[in-house]
Amino acid sequence: MSTDNAIAERAPAHRRLANLLIEYNFIAIFVVVVVIAAALSDNFLTFVNIANLFQQAAVVGVVAIGMTFVILTGNIDLSVGSLTALCGMVVAVLMAAGWDPALAVVATALVGLLCGAAMGATSAYGQVPSFIVTLAGLVSFRGITYLLTDGVPVSGLPPSFAAISSSVIPILPGLGLTSMALIFICLCIAGGLVLRFTVFGEYVYATGGNPEAARLSGLPTRLMITAVFAISGVTAAIAGILLTSRLRIGQPTAAQGLELDAIAAVVLGGTSLFGGRGSLLGTFFAVMLLQVLRNVFNLLGLGSFYQMTVTGFIIVAAVLLNRFIEMRRGRG
């Protein structure tokens, strides 16, 4: 047993509890906000409202999953909002051209993967900061989205395609979640298992924690950066498919500012912008926290200005808290 573990076990119970609350502060913040929300609105804890929360959070949540992988390597992806809109239009255009919905979905996921991998490879092998590469992607992908149909929305999509987001899967007798919500939850679980229990996940953390040491140890850091951007591209494509399925129309103006929501959720969940520390568990709770705040404001009939103001304060507070945790660890 290590000395640190021995000291931790001898620590008083209240100190161990305090350390746990600091370590998993995002869960504590989420619980506090949920309790306040339940006190403010009698409708908040109804199953219908909870199911709606998951459905509303799905698009941002799926994008935030890929963003977590990218940020864990110490990079950033500003293109995900535009890529989500592009993939949403691609799947709509393909089906409007007569493609089978399943084939259109697969082709769209491949488009997202290739776009993400191209940006990752450009950053890693071309040694161009990911901020610059993905900023170019943000502009370019949105432009391509408009060029596909001259900015005209695509309608008349097959009814079977709408079922991707709207079909209800029973989880309890008489109660169920939409497939859109379950896709988000399943992707979170799968991504979390990959990061926690696979060699790939270890490489992701190592690449972000100390890139030079990882490279000298023989880790394929450039390939890892390319891979996490490919993952981000795929999750953006999935989000675009879900969004188009839910709207039942290909909308070129969709997903404006989505990249900011995804980055905010990842940072709020405790993932360091410098890489090497964080988890998808934190991202999941942060996505749901932001959605709970929006939901509470809607239930109380408050405008979006309140929502933006409070959300901004919470994000700043979360960043300061995580900075405090890092400093506390450094002193230890």
CATH architecture: Orthogonal Bundle
Question: Which sequence of SSEs, written as H and E, runs from N to C?
Answer: HHHHHHHHEEHHHHHHH
Number of strands: 2
Helix content: over 70%
State mean pLDDT (0 to 100 scale). 88
Overall tally of domains: 1
Order of strands, main sheet, comes to 1-2
Taken as a percent bin, the fraction of beta residues is under 5%
Q: Pairing-aware structural class of the strands and helices?
A: mainly alpha
Query: What is the terminal-to-terminal distance?
Result: 18 Å
Biggest sheet descriptor: 2 strands, antiparallel
CATH fold-type name? ABC transporter involved in vitamin B12 uptake, BtuC
Radius of gyration: 21 Å
Class in CATH? Answer: Mainly Alpha
Please, could you describe this protein's structure?
- The chain is mostly helical and 332 residues long.
- The chain has a two-stranded antiparallel ribbon with strand order 1-2.
- It has helices at residues 3-10, 13-23, 25-40, 47-72, 80-96, 101-125, 130-149, 159-166, 179-197, 199-209, 211-216, 221-247, 258-268, 280-300, 304-331; strands at residues 168-172, 175-178.
- The chain is built from 15 helices and two strands.
- 77% of the residues lie in helices and 3% in strands.
- It is globular, with a radius of gyration of 21 Å.
- Strand 1 and strand 2 (175-178) form a beta hairpin.
Produce a short descriptive summary.
It is built from 15 helices and two strands.
